[in-house]
Amino acid sequence: MAVILQVDFKMEGPFGQEMAEGFAGLAKSINEEEGFLWKIWTENSDAKEAGGIYLFETKEAAQKYLNMHTERLKGFGIDPVNAKIFEVNEELTKINHGPLK
C-alpha cells in the first residue's frame, strides 16, 4: 500500500529559483531512493519553512528514507524535522485524481 511522507522544517533559505538551482542535484538523487515514487517540494519564504510531500511504495521505504533524510538535515544544522507517515486511501484518492504512481 502506498504511503505519504510529509516533512517540514525551519530553513533560512534559499527559496524560489535559487532553491531550485541549489537543490537540483539533491532532487535528482531522491529519484534513486528505494520505493520512491514522487515528491512535491514545499516552501514558505515568509515563515522560513520548507519540506515536501512524498509518495513511497511502502511504509518501510518511507521510514528508511525519513531516517536518512533527518540525519542529512541535521548535518546541515536543521533540527528539529517534523514528519508524519500516512497510509493512502487509494480508492478515494482515485476519485479526486490523486497521482498514485
Helix residue percentage: 25-40%
Total beta strands: 4
Main sheet overview:
4 strands, antiparallel
The helix/strand order is EHHEEHEH
Provide the low-confidence segments as ranges: none
How many domains in all?
1
By secondary-structure content and strand pairing, the structural class works out as alpha+beta
Assign the CATH class.
Answer: Alpha Beta
Rg for CA atoms: 14 Å
- Second CATH tier, the architecture: 2-Layer Sandwich
Under CATH, the topology is which? Alpha-Beta Plaits
Instruction: Tell me the fraction of residues in β-strands, as a range.
Output: 25-35%
Biggest sheet strand line-up:
2-3-1-4
Q: Mean pLDDT, as a whole number?
A: 95
Global morphology: globular
Q: State the end-to-end distance.
A: 11 Å
- The total of helices stands at 4
Could you characterize the architecture of this molecule?
With 101 residues, this protein is α+β, with helices and mostly antiparallel strands. The protein has one domain (3-95): Alpha-Beta Plaits (2-Layer Sandwich), CATH 3.30.70. It is built from four helices and four strands, in the order βααββαβα. The protein has helices spanning 16-22, 24-30, 59-75, 90-95; strands spanning 3-10, 36-44, 49-56, 82-87. A four-stranded antiparallel sheet has the order 2-3-1-4. β2 (36-44) and β3 form a beta hairpin. It is globular. GO terms for molecular function: monooxygenase activity. This is Putative monooxygenase. Keywords: Monooxygenase, Oxidoreductase.
